[in-house]
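Fold these two proteins, one after the other.
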Amino acid sequence: MSGSADRGSRRLLVTGADTFWGGRVAQAFEADPDVEVVVGIGARDPSVPLERTDFVRVSDHSYSTVQRIVSATGVDTIVHTGVMVDSTLGSSRLHDVNVIGSLNLLAAAGAPGSTVRALVVKSSGLVYGATSRDPYAFGETMTRAMPARTPVERSLLEAEALVSDFAHNNPEVTVSVLRFASVLGPDLSTPLSRNLSRRWSPSLFGYDPLLQFIEQGDVVRALIHAVRSATPGTFNVGAPGRVPLSEVAEICGTRLVPLPPWKAELVSAPFTRVGAFDLPPELVMLLRYGRGMDTKRFAETGFDYRFSSVEAIHAFARAIRLRKGAGRPAESYTYQEDLEHFLRHANSVAHRADEPSTPA
């Protein structure tokens, strides 16, 4: 948000509100009394309960669809969480979601008469890649050492280029891009976290890379902070410290299976097919070289992490043990449109989700 924005009438649009991150960001803003309206869009049903978010299921994120929503709701802030960073969810969707989806969103945000004055984009440290030529820690102004080799990295770079162009062409909009380190958390499922939660986890023979993490709650807090602090620019966001993969595995209670470093994907293919490993190409490079990011710039905006990298690993490991000890998977939420409509609009509901109850 710009510094002159009326904080008491903030109106937000959260893209990817049907995803892990979008749903949790929407939930956080629902609890913020300075936020008047929360609008969420997504291609599927929400994955978490939303109390006062106006959720719109859109089958496509075409310009006309997004522009109509932005125009009708008069949102002043967009939090773009709908960017995909996990290629195992379908590499064919990466370009459509990350590039075309971002392009249409930015066109809607910059359309004539648009009320949008702030844009926060959730990106990833994957834009830096992972090679033998990398610095110890990437700063935001550094470029990757070698061209992008994987579809997810290419799509993220293209999406960030579109955001950069948008910021240049729309100086009245405060644009913040957050590049997150690898995320761990009790509820999040990624190729790396799935491997670490199993009895056996892949590694590359002769390599013990240093890994930087961020806890899932700190990711949501960072996105909220970016909206509230209204600081433009690109920021690396990762918890303090880096931990060798061997130590990560020991904390999580998994045994590393060393694979040939130059044929890892081929050798692991049978294990991947039966669900024993998750090893997309971007993870192979991370398990070889690791990745570190300099996060001083984001700390200078006033953000502090609740978990260091090693603390995030320990918290994740505790959650794994508790879940295995309970002998059941984590509870899931199923969105029911008719029920949501009833709870929001029926006269028989004593206190609707968006109305505070009166104390006795």
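Now the second one:
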Amino acid sequence: MTTILHIDSSARKQRSISRALAKKFTNQWHAKYPTDKFIYRDIGSAPPNFISEKWIAAVFAPEEKRTDEQNSLLALSDMLIKELTEAEIILISTPMYNYGMPASLKAWFDQVIRVDKTFTFDLSRGDFPLEPTMSGKTLVLLISCGEFGFEVGGVREEMNHLTPHIRSASKYLGVDEQHEIRVEYQEFGDQRHTQSIDNAYLAIPKVIKQIAGKYCLGA
């Protein structure tokens, strides 16, 4: 049985293109692999807390010396990390807000990328002292954009602060394989947008097939 952590981060519950993509993906996965487990977290509707000075102090305090207050501050982080640890596949649906992540998604990353939990820190490694504690996970990014041309070589490549950030941070989620499906042209609302949606839906079964091959899942 494969476990998938599904995260929706759009602030919209209605008319959300990224949520619709995720729904299509999960429905198709369920149809092919009905015994697989999904862990669902809607951070668009219930955003994780932002980290604070007290939260940081709790993280760096030795576990055996943490106060009840510190343990309480880290309870959500511990739960989110547990969900991440259980999953082989991480499915994130997200819109592009102001060329980057929604605040809720950034808050989720800040809660789960944590020293001695998802990465270790050792200066004996030289200039690259951080090392992830997990590996072998697959990330599927389902993205909606108002504009277009954010791909490598695209006219807005340098304005894309969403996927490069997620790709960099996902190393510390244990991700070593990534897939991306993107809908563009939303603000234009023309035929290009319609075609982009159609192309995204057509890409979903292809990505599922690729991932299934990695985890040796039967058809």
